[in-house]
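Re: export button greyed out
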Amino acid sequence: MPHFTVTIEETGETYRCSDQHSLLAGMEALGRKGIPVGCRGGGCGVCKVEVLDGAIRTRAMSREHVSVDDEAGGRVLACRATPQTDIRLRVLGKMKRAVCQGAAAESTTTSQMTGD
Amino acid sequence: MAMTGVLRPGHAQLRVLDMEESVKFYTEVMGLIDMGRDAQGRAYFKCWDERDHHSIVLRQADRAGMDFFAFKVLDQATLDQYERDLKEYGVATERMPAGEMLNTGERVRFKIPTGHTIELYAEKKDVGNGMAYTNPEAWVPNLPGIAPIRMDHCLIYGGDIDGNRDLFEKVFGFSLVERIKLEDGTTDLATWLTCSAKAHDIAMVRHSEDDKLHHVSFRLESWEQVLRAADLMSMHRVSIDAGPTRHGVTRGTTIYFFDPSGNRLETFCGGYDFYPDMQPLTWTWDNVGAGVFYHDRKLNERFLAVVT
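Workaround output, generated via the alternate export path:
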């Protein structure tokens, strides 16, 4: 199966991802970081990215997090997008933190950009 | 305590992004029994040991999450009384007609302070658990998938969880079983409530957005079954969130995982029996990690942030 190079703009991190895996699954399988990991099913919205260069194929994802305009503009959930070419992307999603600033602080200050 | 008012969680209606994929997941991986579709295209399922017609309803939608969560009450008179009690408490109610949901009687629908829609109903067709009502066998053999015995509880996220607790306690007589306090030592981050002798029938976490689902939970009968469920999830490439591990709160063993639309589910076992004379257990802020994940003793970031 074809593999493509995915580059995360902010960190310069790159990884190889097949056209059979989502951008998120490809990252996770190699233990790489950069895109926040949530439900992996298109429902929660935390892995939203903007594809700056390259072509993707997408599956259904929650309209609560990805509008029609978003989708047309390449702003999609990484768990529902598979690469068709090399990809350069920017991370848009983040873990929503509510009353638990303190709680999550221990884990999130170090992991905000690491995805876990 | 003789249970007379609210008996137990009865059904949850979940939104899914792809019905065909979801039906396959809920039957083949979860091992729920397919109980058919209605005219709106909703799909109905039950766990094998449940006797009523269904406990999970799936609706195709463009976003994930939970439409509503329902409790079964003792009988029609109890349903009518609760509707009066809700109105007296100041909550608007709506009657969903019998038959709007397959094999289900009238439902009383209302919103709780966190924005979630809750339903009460008294009647749902008894279809049995696959074994006889006279001289039954011990269990049903050759069930596919994880095959939990019942849909057990849910955990919801929203703002005014204090208002929720007041309503469930005052109108329906629920008891507070456990709570986690925020850093100020006063405010509840989370509460676990029961209407029965279970450790929880519904739980809630304070959150910036209303009407969010954290998980719907399914009960297994042993820790070994929980491990077997994790094996099946890996075989089917299910998205696992956390576990197998144990919760400090309720002492239940658990796996958090996601359905194909990103709705978090739990398969769990255990927990202790609660009676209304027992005082609630409290977890302090510095032990929140152990309260949620007893072995790791720290929260994963997703616990507080990933909801549908």
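The two ends of chain B are 35 Å apart (CA to CA). The button fix ships in the next patch.
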